[in-house]
Amino acid sequence: MREKITNPDAIRTWPGKVPVEYVYTVGVASEPFFRALMERGRLLASPCPECGVRYLPPRLFCERCFSRLEASLELEPRGTLEAFTVVHVDLDGNRLDEPQAYGLVRIHGADTALVHRLAASDADEPEVGMEVEAVLLPPAERTGSILDIRHFRPV
Amino acid sequence: MGKVAVVGAGMTRFVRRAQETGKELSYLAARMALDSCGLTLKDVDAVVVGSAPDAFDGVHMKGEYLADGSGGWQKPTLRCFVGGATGVFAPIVGWYHVASGQFDTVLVVCEEKMSSCHPHPQGAFLTIFDHTTERALGPNLLWIFALEMNRYMTVHGITKEEIALVAVKNKKNALDHPCAHLGSEITVDDVLNSEVMAWPVNRLDVSPASDGAAAIVMCSERVAKRVSDRPVWVEGVGWHLDTAYWTNRDLYYPRYVEYAARMAYDMAGIKEPRKEINIVEPYDPFDYKELHHLEGLLFCKPGEAAKLTVDGVTARDGDLPVCPSGGLLGVGNPIAAAGLMKVCELFWQLRGEAGRRQVPGQPRRGLAQAWGDLMQVGTVVILGI
């Protein structure tokens, strides 16, 4: 058995990295979603005319029946908290100054959940089943990104 | 083993940058393939996804990411990957799903979205080399293929002019392909005078990086006869690995292709490929590779493929049409999708549905081939009607 090597300089190594970055198109289905969020502060869903499933964020296709979908359903950014977690350490194991809560929110009128941050507040302990609403950035600060939603907070 | 047929095919346009996400591209191709044979997702028993490195799309576990767009919802779904050879390997995986008797109808979808990767998808290739003995030198695919092209030209005394004829032919053929990225009418001089990338490779010797998807529907004999009046049968499949060290073989000859081809020929009962196969779609990411691969596929002796091109034998209306689709050089090169595009082309050609690309003489049998990993995996599919 080899001893555990804690100092990589003790053996001969060659450093390397994968030097690529990415630019992702948001896609056909997400373009109107982000436009509606940025311009009107509303959330779009794509209902399947065959299955009836209402996808949010919208999809170009229904995964169940392969129907082509349109993001035709405009919904208020409010819903029900389905699950949550409170994160206390970062990826390197360091304690966070402020724990950060994340949740799955089922927007009223949609059949799928949206993952997002939850407002951090001692007074507002998350609770599964609670009613939450999106807190949006001021219109001038929105860029057409999922972070145009600052977080969800209890109603 | 049961007989396996291809009954439907579809593909998106190949473009430099698609607005669609990878899963949207997959969906468009998969839906087209199903629509082309009147089937729906309900008819599909299992799904095979083919896609090259995750680093192109920039999504790890790309098979899982692409699964819904490929029709995998609540179905047995598998992603396969042998680098650039994936596009012809995915239909082989589809074939054994069906030939095993386990599934009657399998949807095979190949996708690549290379435009996500910046500054260029070549960056993703920098880490395929040995991290200690090679990466320190900064090798990239262009210059290792330049080494191979140089070796091939030198051993056989082949000129850059002869090789450039392949780029001229394929880019012209692609003018007739509605999905093509780079169809164009160019001359040998245009190729020779294009920018030198890594001598002897000039810019027009190389296929572009593209976004796109392609799909086929594969069925058992029982289902194929019910759903299709013109099923195209899988007559042979083959795949093979040469040494995993690209420096451990003589680059002038692609043995990985010969061994894959021999496996497919044995299965199809083919003794003389030149006489028994009517259309060839060899993998042509570089123009010299079409020649290299034709030799590995035993359509001629090593070093003789250039003459076939010079003599017009490989033209669309020649005695042995090669890359009538326009190939990767003309239609484009979204890696896995480009390989499956070649299988789609055989499907359309053998059914007489290739439109302006149709080769004359009612072809009965065609071969598609791709090559990948670090230049040493060959995959071959033979289809017949």
SS elements, strand count of chain A: 9
Order of helices and strands of chain B: EHEHHEHEEHHHHEEEHEHHEHHHHEE
Order of helices and strands of chain A: EHEEEEEEEE
> Pair with the most extensive interface?
A-B, 23 and 34 residues
Low-confidence stretches of chain A: none
| Biggest sheet character of chain A | 5 strands, antiparallel
| Share of helix of chain A, binned | under 10%
Biggest sheet of chain B: strands, sense, closure?
9 strands, mixed
What's the average pLDDT of chain A?
A: 92
Description:
The complex is a heterodimer of chains A (155) and B (385). With 155 residues, chain A is mainly β. Helices cover 7% and strands 35% of the residues of chain A. Chain A is built from 1 helix and 9 strands. A 5-stranded antiparallel sheet of chain A has the order 7-6-5-8-9, with no helix packed on it. A 3-stranded antiparallel sheet of chain A has the order 3-2-4. The model of chain A has no long low-confidence stretch (mean pLDDT 92). Chain B has 385 residues and is an alpha/beta fold. Chain B has one domain (4-119, 208-384): 3-Layer(aba) Sandwich (Peroxisomal Thiolase, Chain A, domain 1). Chain B is 37% helix and 19% strand. Chain B is built from 15 helices and 12 strands. In chain B, the strands form 2 sheets. Chain B has a 9-stranded mixed sheet with strand order 3-2-4-8-1-9-12-11-10. In chain B, a hairpin with a 2-residue loop joins strand 6 and strand 7 (201-202). Strand 1 of chain A pairs antiparallel with strand 5 of chain B, so a sheet runs across the interface.
Blueprint of the fold:
The complex is a heterodimer of chains A (155) and B (385).
Chain A: E1 21-22, H1 30-40, E2 43-47, E3 54-55, E4 73-75, E5 78-89, E6 95-107, E7 113-118, E8 131-136, E9 149-154
Antiparallel strand pairs in A: 2-3, 2-4, 5-6, 5-8, 6-7, 8-9
Chain B: E1 4-11, H1 22-36, E2 46-50, H2 54-57, H3 62-67, E3 77-80, H4 86-99, E4 105-113, E5 117-118, H5 122-125, H6 141-156, H7 160-174, H8 188-193, E6 196-198, E7 201-202, E8 211-220, H9 221-227, E9 232-241, H10 255-268, H11 273-276, E10 279-281, H12 287-296, H13 305-310, H14 327-330, H15 335-350, E11 365-372, E12 377-384
Parallel strand pairs in B: 2-3, 2-4, 10-11
Antiparallel strand pairs in B: 1-8, 1-9, 4-8, 6-7, 9-12, 11-12
